[in-house]
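Extended Data, panel c. Modelled sequence:
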Amino acid sequence: MANEQFTRALQSTREIEITVTGRKSGRQISLPVGFAQEGDKLYLVPVNGSDTNWYKNLLKEPAIRVSAGGATHTASATPITDPARVAQIADMFRARYGARDFEAYYPKHDVAVEVPLS
């Protein structure tokens, strides 16, 4: 499991910062994203689905750094493209952020990303 400080930080925030490697530039790119947690896994839904740049970057280099409340966790992200599983993750986001906000901020939800915490 991720360290206790990181786990506690997740419980007190609605947004995390992810850092991925640019697929063309090779630079580290950081940005805030929403998340859902289920057990020892974090789930991310790219705002523009499979067209989102950070998602495309993860397809080339799956290493991801997740930061919350001053704590960080590094893992290898796994893209999720199975429509049934993506729909389950979208439901987690709807429950966490509200259905109206989810639909407004995530107009295309054809993919998701799993980040293991252990």
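The chain has a mean pLDDT of 95. This feature is highlighted in the accompanying rendering.
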